[in-house]
Each structure stands twice: as C-alpha cells, then as structure tokens.
Amino acid sequence: MDGIREKAPRADSxxxxxxxxxxxxxxxxxxxxxxxDLKSARTTRAAGGQETVxxxxxxxxxxxLGGQYVVRxxxxxxxxxxxxxxxxxxxxxxxGVTPEVGAExxxxxxxxGVFTDLTTKNFTRPAGAEEADDGEVPLKxxxxxxxxxxxxxxxxxxxxxxxxxxxxxxxxxxxEVYVDARAGYPVLQYSGIKTFGGxxxxxxxxxxxPRREASAEPREKGSGVTLxxxxxxxxxxxDTWRQQYVLRDTTRIPDDEGWGRTLSTWDARDKSVxxxxxxxxxxxxxxxxxxxxxxxxxxxxxAVDAHWGGARVFDYYKNKHGRLSLDGHGMTVNxxxxxxxxxxxxxxxxxxxQKMVYGNGDAEYRPLxxxxxxxxxxxxxxxxxNTAALVYAGQSGALNEAMADYFGNAIENEAYGVAxxxxxxxxxxxxxxxxxxxxxxxxxxxxxxxxxxxxxLGVGFGTDNGGVHLNSTIFAGALWDAREDVGDTLTxxxxxxxxxxxxxxxxxxxxxxxxxxxxxxxxxxxAGQLKALHxxxxxxxxxxxxxxxxxxxxxxxxxxxxxNDTRLGSGGGWWTASRSDETGSEAYSVWAGRAxxxxxxxxxxxxxxxYHVNPATDGKTVVWQAHGPTGVDVLARPLAGGPxxxxxxxxxxxxxxxxxDGDVVTFSHYNHGGRQGVTxxxxxxxxxxxxxxxxxxxxxxxxxVSNGRIAYQERRRxxxxxxxxxxxxxxxxxxxxxxxxxxxxTSLGPTAVTGTHVFWLRDAVRGEGTTSxxxxxxxxxxxxxxxxxxxxxxxxxxxxTASDQAVTVGARLPDTTxxxxxxxxLWQFAASGDPKxxxxxxxxxSCNRGEQLSxxxxxxxQVVWIDATIGISQVVTRARPTxxxx
Length: 886
What we know:
Layout: E1 2-7, H1 14-24, H2 26-29, H3 34-37, E2 38-46, E3 50-59, E4 62-76, E5 79-88, H4 103-121, E6 139-149, E7 155-165, E8 172-180, E9 186-191, E10 194-195, E11 220-225, E12 231-239, E13 244-246, E14 248-249, E15 263-267, H5 273-276, E16 285-286, E17 288-289, H6 296-301, H7 303-321, E18 333-339, E19 349-351, E20 356-359, H8 372-385, H9 394-416, E21 427-428, H10 438-441, E22 444-445, H11 464-467, H12 472-486, H13 488-501, H14 509-522, H15 527-539, E23 555-558, E24 569-571, E25 574-579, E26 589-594, E27 602-603, E28 611-617, E29 621-628, E30 631-638, E31 645-650, E32 659-661, E33 664-671, E34 675-682, E35 689-693, E36 698-706, E37 709-718, E38 721-730, E39 736-742, E40 747-753, E41 757-763, E42 772-777, E43 784-787, E44 796-802, E45 806-812, E46 825-830, E47 843-844, E48 852-857, E49 863-867, E50 874-878
Parallel strand pairs: 15-18, 18-20
Antiparallel strand pairs: 1-5, 2-3, 3-4, 4-5, 6-7, 7-8, 8-9, 10-19, 11-12, 12-13, 13-17, 14-15, 15-16, 19-20, 21-22, 23-50, 24-25, 25-26, 26-27, 28-29, 29-30, 30-31, 32-33, 33-34, 34-35, 36-37, 37-38, 38-39, 40-41, 41-42, 42-43, 44-45, 45-46, 46-47, 48-49, 49-50
Helix pairs in contact: 7-8, 8-9, 9-12, 12-13, 12-15, 13-14, 14-15
C-alpha cells in the first residue's frame, strides 16, 4: 500500500515503530499481534532519513517461509511518517508447531529424498567414475530448524540443507529441503546455488573466508590486462608475509577494526567446483604478482577481470544507490577464479551466499569473469539476498535472475559507454567468446521482444529450479524496454527501489510489476514515464491473470495436483495419481479415474496424515507407497473398492518404480547407504516376497512388470569386476534370463515390458548427452535400437513406458542452452516398428510448452502424464500423438 502519510507511534527503534504502526492499523492490515508475529529482519536507511523495515513473520515462534512485511518511513522533524507498506503476511495459519518427526529423522529423509531424485532422474554416470563399495550415500544433511510453509493452514517442516556429490553425474549438490514434520516426507526441495548459466552447481553454504590480520604495506596502484586486451588500473597491496603484490583492495570498504574487510580476488585454479561451492577451500591465496603490474598468468585466469570488474560493480552500487557493498554494511567481497569441473572446463559462475565463483571457461568461452555483466550478475545476487531475499525457485527465482541480469547489463553498458538503445545492449554474456560474434555468444538477450508471458515455460523445481533462467527474461525484458523509454538513471533507481523497499521473498511477476510501478510513483515519475512502464509490462504480457492465457493441446484428467516428486500410473483403461488439496497443505492422497475421462475420479487412499505417493495400476488394483513417521509402507486396494492392504514395510526410502500386474507387485527400494534393490511379491500372499540386490556388491533397479514378467537392471560384482545386465524374470517359473550384458562403462536405465517386447534405456557413449532406446523380443532375440544413441537427432531419454502398440520416452534434446525444446518432452515410437521406416519414426506426444513428466502408457497410443505448462501441475492425456511441433 502506497500513497499514505501517517505518523508512526514513537519508539526507540524503527522496527518497534513499524510494529506499533501495524498494530494500530489492525483493521487494515489484519495483523493481530505484530509484536509477537513479526520479528525484525533488517532495517536499511537512506539519505533524507528514509527507513525501510523488513519484518519476518513467525507462526507461534516458527519462521514462515516467504512471510515478510515491509514498512517504509520518512523522518519529518524528528517524527517517523509511514509512507508505504508491502509484502506478504499469511493469515489463517493454524498448523501446530510441535514436530512428530525429529530433526535426525528429517535429515535422513531429506538425504534419501535427494538421493532418490538424483539416481532415478539421471541414470548415466560420468566418464571414469567408479562406484563406491562402502555403501555410503555421497550426501550429508544439516538441520536448519523448523519452518512453516505458507500453504493453506500451514505445513510445519524441518528445513534441511543437503550437500555432497551427485552419484550419477559427479557434480556437486546443494539442496534446500523442507521435510513435513508430521510424516517425514520432503514436500519441497530446490538448489541453493545462484548461477549465471542454467546448469546449477551445488554445494554447502556454511564456511567463510578466513579473517586476516593486517599484514600489508600501504596500498598501491597496480595494473593488468583484461582478457579482451584492455589495460586497466587495479587496487592492490603488497603482502609482507608473501613478499608479493596481491589482488586485495582496501580502498573501498571502511575497516576500523583492522581485520581486512576487503575486495579480494583468489586463485582457485587447482580447485573443482565441488570444493568451493558454499565452503571456503583450504590452501587458496589471493592472486599474487612480484610487481604491481599483474602479468599474463593473472590475465589468463580471469583474475584481472574479476578484480577490476568487482570494483566497478561495488562503485556502481555505492555511487548510484548509496549502497556500501553487497549487504549494505561493508561486507568483504571475495571472488574465486579459475575453478574447474573436476579438472575439466567449467563454463559457469555463481554466488553461493558468501562469495563469487568464476569458472575457467573452455576453448570457446573465456573465464567467466571476462564478462563484466557476469560479475555484475553474480554480485547482484548478493544484493538481492540481502534485500528482498527472493526465494531461488519458480517465479520468485526468475525475478531474482531478472534483477541480476538487469543490473549486470546496466553496469557493463555504463562501463563501456554502450547506449541502452544499442541493438546489442541487452545481450548477456556477449563478451565471453573467443571467436563467435557477440550475438552468437550471448546467453540471453534482454532486448528480445519475443520474451513474453505467453512463452512462459512451466517446469518443476527439479528443472532449472522451477525455470529461474528459463523465464527470467520475461521480466528482465520488460525492465530493459522501460530503460530504453524512461532512461537509464531513473529506471535504475526505480528498479533498485522496488528491489530494496517493495519486493519480498515469494513475489512473482505480478507482484514485481506492482513493486516497480509503486517505486516509480515514489520517485516522482511523470505521466509519460509511468505510461512507458505500463507499456513495457503489457508488451511482455505481465498483467494480472497472465497465467490463464497459456494454452495446451491435451485433455485435463485431474487439475491442480499440487504435489512434489511423485509419479502417476496407468493401466487397464485407468490412471492413478497423487493429489493434495487446493492449497497444497494437505498430505497427499491417491486418486484414480478412467483414462477416457468419463466418470469422476475416486479416492483410493486414506487421509491419515501420511504421504501417499507413486501409485500404479493395472486397471484392477492400485498400489502405492505411504510415507509416515516410521518409514514407508507399500499399500494396495482394488479399484472396485474394499479395504486397504499393507503389503510391505521399510524404514528407508522406496524409489518411484512401482508396478502391479494381476497378482504381482514390484518396486525398487533403498537399504542403508543407498544400496538399491528390487522386490516383487504376491498381492494375495504378501509374505511370498523375493528381493534382488540391495547389497554392497549386488544392486538392482528400474523394475517394470507386465504379463507375469519383470524386467530390471542389475549391477553385480563378479571376480573383482562388475557385470551390468538387463534381466527378465518369469514370475511363474522363476526363470531369470539375461537380455543384454554390457561393459561397466555403459549405464543402464529404466525398463518397460509388454506381452511381446522388453524395452530399456542405455548410455554407452559418455559425455555426448544422448541415450539409446533399445528393444528386444520377449525371449531376448531381435535386439534393435528404436532410437540410436549416436544417430542424428538422438534424444537424451531418461524415462520410459510402453503399451503393446507404442513405447513412449521422456527425453530432452541435447543442447547447451535451456529452451522449450530442451525441456522434458514426450516422444513416442511404434513398439514393433523399424526405426528406418518413416511410417514408424518417432513423433511428439504433445506440443505443450513446459515440462511433460511421468508418462504412463494407456491403451493403444494413449499417454497420461503430469504437465506443468501453465505453471501448475495437472494430470493430462492425449489419445494419440501430435506427431510434429513447429
């Protein structure tokens, strides 16, 4: 709310005055007890006596994720005057705050959840990777305390940070995970690393740079040459311990304590991204030189660019906006340069909550610090984190990225004297390439008017953190258009004010528009300038209700499922899926319905506080997993009705590969240390159970079942070597045959089996970003690749489902750039077709934009899947594939 001028009650602090004001205006703000429910988070002061107070909402003493209220005040003759308020205060929260699951269990469930997500969604292994036999999951969790998710009446969760290494790719992992404190189910997880490009590295965020006692001689002016050949001045010091000049700037940050609050650039050329993400790597030093003139080594590592660029960004925020460093209070600015990806090129950069990290680049891309807009982008993430704290997921994450791109580009253009109206002014990362043209090199283009809300890509948090890079240019493009029409200085001030005084952690595009317009009013933008701002947002489709304009070519079977990381099933003309309530606050339940859309869906599971997930059906029975405080149960219930039957229990996690066929139920599961196994049992006699793998030297995964046969993948140690095989079990006879055996360098993925064929995915050519879809007759003969791994147009398939007539894969096109075509899409092949026959060549199931996940084969060529195109998850279907998409 803006346009108000009301006196705030007298108080010792700005936060107390803000709370007292909100309490006085309870009828307007509906905050019954601000003194109890709003705790001071941050107060910033600007010239002229302006104060911005950010208040963190707490529910019965527990922080509410994204619950933040902002009160803006001015000083008039010693009296505080409230000029505006904004933010989110969630009313109606009634959730209890006493957990039924302890923090230790929550950490275990969070680690299991991340491990399952990583291993089931990416079955490939990095080249040269050796699988450990110690049985330890390469992930560790740290409890961060209780947090209430503001869904409906509220969901009490344990916040857990999970860090480590991705067992499938070898890349570092950092996930912020929220585990329901009643049932122990991870209801939300997203990456905690804010990157320049779309492939997010991960890692912890706990350690900090060592504090340094003064050991320098008086500061000096140094020099260096940037990667594009310009000679630049550098603020450096001579380190008396090392007897070298180092990239350490003490000229910008006041430091009365003598503890070295600096702008420093560190040499991390011998470090991999996993060693530096969120932790301070041991043994690194500030980049040094025997003379104040830093030579070719500092240039080639990107150190000169990082140091010079960091100073430019620091000066921009200080001189243009009165901001002292990233936190506004003079924090040290540390940049690490030359980081690799396990000794290989790393073409990315990120802010991890404490420092900037710049990759070493490759044969085409220079070290990432070579782009001043990249440096500005990453440092702006630090500004965002210390102001609006936009949650780095979904629309709020896209706003976070938009702010980073906008200010990064603004800073670079100012430094290079590029007018905003220049056709290339909106390019992001265009100066990084060694040989390509700027436009061919750029990661994004803020000046591309085609970046509109109708091109919004709905994805889950497992992809680009919910589209933070994919959708950022929609909002950043509107800001850039406004900059062209309104002018650089005023627009920069408007956007900065919106970021620091209006936006709050869970704001999306609509709230972002409102914040910018309100900030423009504060800064006395005239009618023409306000009109230009409205025009910019309208042109990019950012208007109230813009999500409703997104169209789909599929039929909706179940709307707004509001679930996280749960698959659906289909069989015998029925589908089954998990669903929460309209607000997403209810523990998930299992529903089933007819695949042709007739009739009404029916509830299959009890609403007992457990999370009922990953259901499967054969058209007669529905089976699923129920996650509760004591572990996971596998349950079953006939579609015709009857009691729910408990089939199996495990204290650890169960993977998403559930299947049922008549009397046979199969699923994969994890034992201690992530040892994966496959279990199958009798629906009539659950005690009749067979388990395969689950040990240190024998593991099994990716089961599927049909017509009394189970297909799965096996890894077994034989005479100090591992055998990797695709296997097929005849449940009635117990025969277990090898369909294909491959060398240890080949990864084997999901399977599907029908009455006539067995299908599976494999990755034999490492590092190419493609996989093959392989098929054999049910007796193991006539092996053929329906989608060869090395053929032109090969897919990166990761999921699989099949009927007698068609096989459908979830796949991405291999590409280095995130775009609609490279998101998870569904592709279909004729099950018995010749891949050389054009009549049976692959086709797209649907042309919906956004992610298409968890495909389940229906009768004939029908497919049921979870679609995220419109920004919410829906169970949808098509009776036949669309074929091609323009």
